[in-house]
Amino acid sequence: MKMKKLVALIATAAMTMSLTACGGAATETAPAEDTAAAETTEAATAEDTAAAETTEAAPAEDTAATEEFDYGSGSITIWAADNVVDLTQQLADKFIADKGVDYTVVVEACGEGDAASNMITDVEAGADIYGFAQDQLARLVAAGALQPLNAEFGDWVTANNDAGSVNAATAGSTIYAFPLTSDNGYFLYYDKSAVTDPSSLEKILEDCEAAGKNFYFDADSAWYNAAFFFATGANCTFETDDAGAFTGTTASYASDAGLVAYKAMINMIESPIFVDGSAAGEATNVGAIVDGTWDSSALQEILGDNYACAKLPSFKGSDGKDYQLSGFGGFKLMGVKPQTEGGKLKLCYELAQYLSDTDAQLERFNAQGWGPSNVAAQADPAVKADPALSALAEQLAFTIPQGQYPGEWWDLAGALGKDVESGTITSSSSDDDLMAELKIHDDGCQSYIQ
């Protein structure tokens, strides 16, 4: 940034000198004369002089524009989700070629769920640009792994993306990242030849069992199993300050509402056709799977003509009431690591902007079904007609916005599902045992508050 200011000052000085010379010449070439002919001659001379000096000033302006910023040279590393590595490399290579700068870009596979942990472990060795899930923003800010966007790029983010994604990229009053998607949620994919009623969890399990097909749900993931707890009104949220520190929590899994949710999750896990997981690439004999838009292409291939999508189903609680599965609604973001060189930082900003702009978001939608956060891309007819994004949009009405969560929380809440899968907790466990398990969760949440 200092180099840019210096060049700008030099250019400004050069332009000021030219304009001063131009003004002086004009004054000197317009003396009072006694005859009109002399005045005409002198005026013509003044015009010619001014024109010549304007011509001379032009190279200075051109030079200033050409030398406005020195990007330097080097290499930029990007971390992207495995299924968009090749596409990201293609887009980045095109950007560098069009920009005409002496940089190479290497795109490496690193999912949004893993990027934050890897960055925090060693910021210096981390990628220069990386995608991450919005819930990791506080951790990354606190670790100094994100360069705040300057006013230019912050204004661009605000003007070009939906409000939810802009809020997701913001900590305190500062925008720290470029939104990539407004699709970080999950819903139901199902085989419509097997599942007759996608609105009921019990009916889905029954239909899958009858058809000899599997039902996939990532029950040992805190992100997914929250769908049960939020459905019944149990809660778990955290508050953070501008520095990313956790200052408060509302955790009520250890409650009557949490008990109803836990029992329903246990019943699902104990179904003979239940399989833990949410990755389409690892799924076989799929009857139904709770997954996100990032796997829409893979599931279209797996399910073929029987491909169908819907919001998450409801379930019958132990209290006899029906509950709509809920969950998190969130966003994918792209951040830039702090840089020691101003030229490289500016180029990283511009590359991240390019990778999150309208055309790039549509490229990812067409290739992998990622749902755009960019408002122009959201208006694309193909985006509006996509069945997976339509199902997600319907499901998001029943979710809570995904805020910031301590890194340890994901293992803490994930253990609620793991303990059922291991047999430590079963449908035969007493309410006291279940409540004790849930209390471990709530007490753990309190321990993270600083």
Quick summary of this structure?
Helix content is 50%, strand content 18%. With 450 residues, the protein is α/β, with parallel strands linked by helices.
Descriptive account of the structure:
- This protein folds into 3 domains: about 1-65; about 75-185 and about 330-380, Periplasmic binding protein-like II (D-Maltodextrin-Binding Protein, domain 2, 3-Layer(aba) Sandwich), CATH 3.40.190.10; about 185-325 and about 405-445, 3-Layer(aba) Sandwich (D-Maltodextrin-Binding Protein, domain 2), CATH 3.40.190.10.
- About 50% of the residues lie in helices and about 20% in strands.
- It has 18 helices and 17 strands.
- It has helices at about 1-30, 35-65, 85-100, 110-120, 135-140, 150-160, 165-170, 200-210, 220-230, 255-270, 295-305, 340-355, 360-370, 375-380, 380-385, 385-395, 405-420, 430-445, and strands at about 75-80, 100-110, 130-135, 170, 175, 180-185, 185-190, 215, 235-240, 245-250, 275, 285-290, 305-310, 315, 320-325, 330-335, 400.
- Strands 1, 2, 3, 6, 16 and 17 form a 6-stranded mixed beta sheet that branches.
- α1 (about 1-30) packs antiparallel against α2 and α10 (about 255-270) crosses α17 (about 405-420).
- The chain is globular, with a radius of gyration of 29 Å.
- It starts with a helix and ends with a helix.
